[in-house]
């Protein structure tokens, strides 16, 4: 039986970041398409299949989009096809999905930012796009962050 994996996301100038929270999971698959993203895994001791197909708000560059597995989540960096275009939501569908939340801790209004003022997440995005998908290095202290879930 398929269940959606809980996810949080935030928008940046060049990329959109999506983190699927999948503690104790295996058989993780992430596929990028210009207008959608497919995610699946087997989680828990009950081997529950979790799956999300997201029809994206805007188009992405699938070849430049990457994902990285951590202990408890899968972080996806979706490289926007149109740099500088803001995404007010992740999906084309305006319906509020109960499995999807906004990560306000990492959300930043970048509309008026200059290119010299890159945040650490923009630098991380550049690093992800310059490296391979699954073999990205662990970030020091990444497991120490605390995230708050606010469902919209």
UniProtKB/TrEMBL annotation:
Q: Which Pfam families match?
A: CS
Gene Ontology terms, MF aspect: Hsp90 protein binding; prostaglandin-E synthase activity; protein-folding chaperone binding
Supply the alphabetized keyword list.
Cytoplasm, Fatty acid biosynthesis, Fatty acid metabolism, Isomerase, Lipid biosynthesis, Lipid metabolism, Prostaglandin biosynthesis, Prostaglandin metabolism
What are the record's GO terms for cellular component?
A: cytosol; nucleus
Q: Where is the CS domain?
A: 2-91
Asked if Lipoprotein is a keyword of the record, the answer is no
**Protein name as catalogued:** Prostaglandin E synthase 3
**Assigned protein family:** Belongs to the p23/wos2 family.
Q: Where does this protein come from, organism-wise? A: Seriola lalandi dorsalis
Quickly give the catalysed reaction.
prostaglandin H2 = prostaglandin E2
Q: Do you know which PROSITE patterns this protein is assigned to?
A: CS
Q: Which GO terms describe its biological process?
A: chaperone-mediated protein complex assembly; prostaglandin biosynthetic process; protein folding; telomerase holoenzyme complex assembly; telomere maintenance via telomerase
Cell location: Cytoplasm
Note whether Cytoplasm occurs among the keywords.
Answer: yes
Pathway it works in: Lipid metabolism; prostaglandin biosynthesis
Q: What is its main location?
A: cytoplasm
Enzyme Commission code(s) on record: 5.3.99.3
């Amino acid at each position: 039986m398929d269940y959606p994996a809980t996810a949080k996301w935030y928008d940046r100038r060049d990329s959109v970041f999506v983190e699927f929270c999948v503690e104790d999971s295996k058989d993780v698959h992430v596929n990028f398409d210009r207008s959608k993203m497919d995610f699946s895994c087997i989680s828990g001791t009950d081997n529950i299949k979790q799956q999300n197909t997201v029809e994206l708000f805007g188009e992405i560059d699938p070849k430049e989009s990457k994902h990285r597995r951590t202990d408890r989540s899968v972080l996806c960096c979706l490289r926007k096809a149109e740099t500088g275009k803001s995404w007010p939501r992740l999906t084309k569908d305006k319906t509020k999905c109960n499995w999807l939340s906004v990560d306000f801790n990492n959300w930043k209004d970048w509309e008026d930012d200059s290119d010299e003022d890159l945040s650490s997440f923009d630098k991380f995005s550049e690093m992800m796009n310059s490296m391979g998908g699954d073999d990205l290095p662990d970030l020091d202290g990444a497991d120490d962050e605390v995230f708050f879930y606010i469902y919209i």
